């Protein structure tokens, strides 16, 4: 562990002065990603592309060696040990993600440790709804079910009714779809989409043009692509009209 910490300090000293524009920016842009499987490394690399400072932690030496140059820091460590996490300074990070895959016990222990350390914002990956409920009961601030959520999203797209589908918490969704005939040729306030279908049109895109914000006076034309929001069941029913 001491050699890992020494390596972290050495690599920290190599960072350019530009990365330290201000102490506040440095604190805000740090995240620890625990677990460097497919989900964890994909998330970590995207955060790096967005300019974040990422500490990757995994107990698999092969993964640590593979990604040691891809992230700001990569450490070989057992995240189920609270003392180890404290030695790594993860209690000073404003955000952490538990991206551990099928090792449910390790996921739960790591989540518990990070909460005990007082990490302000904690995201945790779950591989099932039951696993997710356990993480929520522990106190994880955000629980992610990537396989389940992606499966639902792709199922909606495969049906051909929607061009894109994003579901949020509490049964609320945003959908991109071709405008149904019943909504075209008149301003939105006349088609009464919200009253009739329980959804709100927030954006309209004509072929060859950019998306524009929808207002009550917006006239939707045949072939327009629209973005609507509302309860999941409502947007699904609305998309069925296309």
UniProtKB/TrEMBL annotation:
Q: What InterPro entries does this protein's entry cite?
A: NAD(P)-bd_dom_sf, RCK_C, RCK_C_sf, RCK_N, Trk_Ktr_HKT_K-transport
Bias-annotated ranges (Basic residues): 7-17
The membrane spanning regions, by residue number, are: none
What biological-process GO terms show up in the record? potassium ion transport
Q: Tell me which Gene3D superfamilies the record gives.
A: NAD(P)-binding Rossmann-like Domain, Regulator of K+ conductance, C-terminal domain
Q: Which residues form the RCK C-terminal domain?
A: 160-242
Q: Which parts of the sequence belong to the RCK N-terminal domain?
A: 28-150
Region of interest (Disordered), ranges? 1-24
Source domain of life is Bacteria
Spell out the molecular function terms from Gene Ontology.
Answer: monoatomic cation transmembrane transporter activity
Q: What is this protein called?
A: TrkA family potassium uptake protein
Annotated organism of origin: Streptomyces sedi
């Amino acid at each position: 562990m001491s050699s890992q910490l020494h390596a972290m300090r050495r690599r920290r000293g190599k960072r350019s002065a530009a990365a330290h524009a201000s102490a506040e920016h440095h604190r805000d842009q740090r995240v620890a990603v625990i677990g460097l499987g497919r989900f964890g490394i994909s998330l970590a690399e995207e955060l790096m592309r967005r300019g974040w400072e990422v500490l990757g932690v995994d107990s698999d030496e092969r993964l640590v060696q593979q990604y040691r140059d891809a992230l700001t820091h990569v450490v070989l460590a057992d995240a189920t040990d609270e003392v180890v996490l404290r030695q790594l300074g993860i209690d000073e990070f404003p955000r952490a993600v538990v991206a551990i895959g099928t090792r449910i016990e390790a996921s739960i222990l790591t989540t518990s440790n990070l909460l005990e350390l007082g990490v302000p914002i904690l995201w945790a990956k779950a591989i099932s709804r039951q696993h997710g409920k356990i993480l929520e009961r522990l106190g994880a601030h955000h629980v992610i079910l990537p396989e389940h959520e992606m499966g639902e999203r792709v199922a909606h797209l495969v049906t051909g009714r929607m061009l894109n589908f994003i579901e949020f918490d509490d049964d609320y969704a945003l959908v991109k779809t071709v405008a149904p005939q019943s909504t075209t040729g008149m301003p939105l306030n006349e088609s009464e989409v919200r009253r009739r279908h329980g959804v709100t049109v927030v954006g309209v895109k004509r072929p060859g043009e950019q998306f524009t914000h929808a207002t009550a006076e917006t006239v939707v034309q045949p072939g327009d692509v629209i973005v609507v929001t509302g309860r999941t069941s409502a947007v699904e029913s609305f998309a069925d009209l296309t």
